[in-house]
């Protein structure tokens, strides 16, 4: 067979494959902003009203600094949550609201448009580390769509983590499903592992697939530094919804 023919055929095959990959990547990048726009109203930031002791400088007499201890109050970031009903029911990880529950602290949820509403803890599942809170306002809530065929989830699928890392406000990070059915001796159940960047404050937030369907609730990270190192884990949404139904019923 003619060497030029083989060379040209190989070149056309390479260009065809390259064009296909480029086309898929362009389509993905075009679709992703729309996916984020559609899902962001369904994720909230969770804050609690806390009190703490602090030292405050008193009037400076004769150049001598004097201090007194005072009680300060303010809202501090707890984590994130996902709206799952038009009535304003929100799923989160229980450890996000654990301290607020124990100390009867006021909860506030912040929506992606910056508005806030007070929220009430409805119930929780300690074994699954799932809690349900309810927003007490009158907004038109946007529940997130849940992926039904989670058993078809595959390693390598594109995912996006949505939450409130470090209390900075709603943020997105993209990655893939790194593993499924991860198990740990000190935790119940199995988890979805992802390399999407997750940090303190993401807990209780959403892990969605490339179509914006909820596949898990961000739960914890394995890290020596306290920050994301690519070992990030979410509770599978089928487990979450099972706990949710038990709690509200």
Keywords, separated by commas or semicolons:
single chain; 249 residues; alpha+beta; Thrombin, subunit H; 2 domains; 6-stranded antiparallel barrel; 23% helix
Q: What is the class of the largest domain in the CATH system?
A: Mainly Beta
Number of strands: 12
* Apparent shape: globular
Measure the end-to-end span: 73 Å
Which parts are unreliable, with pLDDT below 50 for 5 consecutive residues or more?
A: 18-29
CATH architecture of the largest domain: Beta Barrel
What is the element string, with H for helices and E for strands? HEEEHEEEEEEEEEH
Strand content: 35-45%
Please work out how many helical segments DSSP would assign.
Answer: 3
Q: Superfamily at the CATH H level of the largest domain?
A: Trypsin-like serine proteases
Query: Looking across the biggest beta sheet, what order are the strands in?
Result: 1-2-3-6-5-4
Structural Rg: 23 Å
Helix content: 10-25%
How many domains, in number, for the residues?
A: 2
- Helix/strand class: alpha+beta
CATH topology assignment of the largest domain: Thrombin, subunit H
């Amino acid at each position: 067979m003619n060497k030029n023919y083989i060379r040209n055929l190989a070149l056309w095959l390479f260009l065809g494959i390259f064009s296909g990959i480029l086309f898929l990547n362009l389509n993905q990048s075009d679709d992703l902003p729309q996916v984020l726009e559609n899902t962001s109203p369904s994720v909230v930031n969770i804050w609690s009203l806390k009190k703490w002791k602090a030292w405050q400088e008193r009037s400076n007499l004769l150049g001598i600094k004097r201090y007194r201890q005072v009680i300060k109050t303010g809202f501090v970031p707890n984590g994130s949550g996902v709206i799952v009903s038009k009535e304003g029911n929100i799923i989160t990880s229980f450890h996000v609201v654990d301290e607020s529950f124990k100390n009867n602290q006021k909860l506030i949820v912040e929506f992606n448009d910056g508005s806030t509403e007070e929220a009430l803890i409805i119930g929780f599942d300690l074994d699954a580390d799932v809690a349900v809170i309810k927003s007490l306002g009158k907004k038109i809530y946007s529940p997130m769509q849940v992926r039904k065929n989670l058993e078809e989830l595959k390693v390598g699928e594109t995912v996006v983590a949505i939450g409130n890392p470090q209390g900075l406000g709603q943020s997105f990070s993209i990655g893939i499903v790194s593993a499924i059915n991860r198990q740990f001796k000190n935790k119940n159940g199995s988890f979805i592992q992802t390399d999407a960047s997750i940090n303190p404050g993401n807990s209780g937030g959403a892990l969605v697939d490339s179509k914006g369907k909820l596949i898990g609730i961000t739960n914890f990270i394995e890290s020596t530094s306290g920050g994301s190192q690519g070992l990030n884990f979410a509770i599978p949404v089928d487990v979450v919804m099972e706990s949710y139904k038990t709690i509200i019923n």
